[in-house]
Amino acid sequence: MSKYTKLVALFVIGIVPFELNGIWNPLLSKNLNSYWIVELISWLIFPTCMYLIGNNLGLFNNKEIGFHSNIFDKHYNVILLFIITAIVSPFLYLCYINFDRLALTVFPTNWGVVSFDYPNMIPEKGIGKLLVALYFALTAGFVEEFYYRGMLYKIINRGRESTVYYILISSIIFSSVHWEGGVRKLLATFLFGIVCASIYRFLKNLWPLAIGHTLTVYILYMR
Predict the structure, then answer these.
(1) Which residues, including other chains, have CB under 8 Å from residue 88's CB and lie 6 or more apart?
(2) How far apart are CA 206 and CA 133, in angstroms?
(3) Helix, strand, coil distribution of the chain in percent, nearest 5
(4) CA–CA distance from 198 to each of 42, 63, 172, 194, 201 (Å)?
(5) CA atoms of 143 and 146, how far apart (whole Å)
(6) Where are any strands of DSSP class E within the chain?
(7) Which among 16, 47, 97, 200 would be 20 to 30 A from 61, CA to CA?
(8) pLDDT tens sequence across 145-167
């Protein structure tokens, strides 16, 4: 089996829990202990294993998936990376809330939504609310950017002619794992995915996206 085939297999296996959690989350949420065991395995332990396996097998390294200090394939200091992150983060948040509003307008009826929503798993107040919201935000921001932007770029990138394919495929798969949120969520995340994939293709760095994605989810869940 070639390295490329192994990389594709690792990606497919890695995203299976996210494609299926819309099926088991409504059932598991009735028992908090069961829910959090599966949640931590799916969003923390399993992605960490996929990352370590990919690194150990030489399928990718941090630079190839975007976790480095380079911008536009050139080395810059951390200050510039911080400035770019400070610009990208609020931009992503504004994009998502506007895409969410657009989805509400396009789909007055949210077909396909299931009886589960992550914000419902967050305590109503106190330190528990801060910590659980932060956990959801960090796992969504870093795990999703790792898979749908970083790994997919490594899989699809075959020069400039692959840019459109990368952006579309990345956005479609990213959207597909949010199917439990109904057609509104599918549309909003598809458009958000286009923005994120385009930014990644331009910057070739995951840090601004992972942090911006994290902050976007955190602000939305703390509202």
Answers:
(1) 199, 208, 209, 211, 212
(2) 21
(3) 80, 5, 20
(4) 27, 18, 13, 6, 5
(5) 5
(6) 70-71, 74-75
(7) 16
(8) 999 999 999 999 876 668 999 99
